[in-house]
Amino acid sequence: MPNTVRRPDDDRRRREAQRRRQREEAERREQIRTSRDHRQRTTQLERQSLMGPMDLPFLLLTLLLTAGGVWALCIVAFGGRVGGREYVPVELTYGGKTVSIVALRDSGNTLRDPISGEQVLVVSGEVAEKLTGLTQDQLRAPLKTLMCRPVPGLRLIPYRAVGQAGDMLLAMRFDRVKIGNRPQSAVVAFAAEGLGRGDVYQALTGGVI
């Protein structure tokens, strides 16, 4: 057999072909990696468009507020006992206005009208202003306000809070009061300030009213 002679040009072309194949393989791998990274970034952006970085805390807050709103709505609609306290829905109507609130039923509340002897429903100043227009400044000065007679039928109810000297509350009779499911006429007194947790209840009622 004749001897095969390998020329230098053949070796050079072979090495160049091998390097070309290596470059093409490296470029192919880089394209695959780039495409994979692009798909991952696109998926992340799609997820963020559905739920942004602030959406999760916002969603949790919304759920809490919704639960609180449902709880408050149930109290307003049906009343009930929560944490050892009994709440009752109250509806007050005066001058064509109707306000629905929540009252804490307090058996220790012995406030009574000195004229009729009836137990008195006490509402916050905010509720009083919505129904009668009486401001907190007017409620803080009951004697002066009574002399001006800004609202017909006003009277004074003496009261004493624990650890405080006696004072007076402005009050009047409401012909249309609904406590729980029982419509009635009731004497309603107006506290100048809020009553306890204003976000939970806005009125105080005694054990039998």
Could you explain how this protein is built, in words?
This protein is α+β, with helices and mostly antiparallel strands. The protein contains 5 helices and 8 strands. A 6-stranded mixed β-barrel has the order 2-3-8-4-7-6. A hairpin with a 2-residue loop joins strand 2 and strand 3. It is rod-shaped. It starts with 7 loop residues before the first helix and ends with a strand.
Summarize the structure.
With 209 residues, the chain is an alpha+beta fold.
Observed structural traits:
209 residues; six-stranded mixed beta barrel; alpha+beta
Reconstruct the topology from this structure.
Blueprint: H1 8-50, H2 55-78, E1 80-82, E2 85-94, E3 97-105, E4 120-123, H3 125-132, H4 136-140, H5 142-148, E5 155-159, E6 167-179, E7 182-190, E8 203-205
Parallel strand pairs: 3-8, 4-7
Antiparallel strand pairs: 1-2, 2-3, 2-6, 4-8, 5-6, 6-7
Helix content: 40-55%
Element-by-element helix/strand order: HHEEEEHHHEEEE
* Counted beta strands: 8
Mean pLDDT: 77
Model regions low in confidence, pLDDT < 50 over at least 5 residues: 48-54, 69-79
Rg of Cα set: 39 Å
Strand-residue fraction?
25-35%
Structural class, by secondary structure, is alpha+beta
